[in-house]
Design goal:
The chain is an alpha/beta fold. The mean pLDDT is 89.
Length: 189
């Protein structure tokens, strides 16, 4: 696994932990091409796994990334990647080693943690929980105005319509579908 672009371009981040399905380089490259600049953004990487999406964001200029991953083993490997890149907690990165819904609840109580961009890439065998996670995310008050949420999942199981959520874009990459979402409700500042 390697970083595609930005200040850490080409850096090898080691092997993928057993049982983790990383976002392929091709999909990451396309995803960030559609996103455009992430310079100065605050990013939330849910179901972080290898951390590829969040680390790519840091490399491309995001101010801060909060990674959420419940597996302690996978988090140890993620922190080893931080060391390779010279990233330190607290600072540009933070890791929460809990499940995503608990993390969303905790972040909702922390006024300083508000996000411009969220990546949601659950394991495909848990993809049925995407709707519950998205419902919690959009109601937690942790998204800034015009925040974008990018959901990765299997093409054979597209997201159903969600109340108060607008689909900005959808793209297929082989068996993978990326869906860009935004709240259709006004966000309080």
């Amino acid at each position: 696994m390697r970083i595609i672009s930005g200040r850490f371009r080409g850096r090898d981040l080691g092997s993928v932990p057993e049982g983790v399905r990383p976002t392929s380089e091709r999909v990451r490259e396309s995803l960030f091409s559609v996103l455009g600049s992430v310079e100065g953004l605050r990013v939330l990487d849910l179901f972080a796994g290898t951390g590829a999406l969040g680390l790519e964001s840091i490399s491309r200029g995001a101010d801060r990334v909060v990674f959420v991953e419940r597996s302690r083993r996978v988090v140890r490997e993620l922190r080893a990647r931080f060391d390779v890149l010279g990233l330190e907690e607290p600072g540009a990165v933070r890791v929460l080693t809990i499940d995503t819904k608990r993390a969303i609840g905790r972040l909702g109580k922390e006024a300083e943690e508000r996000f411009d961009l969220v990546f949601l890439d659950p394991p495909y065998e848990e993809e049925g929980d995407r709707v519950g996670t998205l419902t919690a995310l959009f109601s937690a008050g942790i998204l800034r105005a015009r925040a974008r949420v990018v959901v990765e999942g299997p093409k054979r199981h597209p997201l159903p319509p969600l109340a108060g959520v607008r689909v900005l874009d959808e793209r297929d990459y082989g068996d993978t579908k990326l869906t860009w979402l935004e709240s259709s409700r006004p966000v309080e500042r």
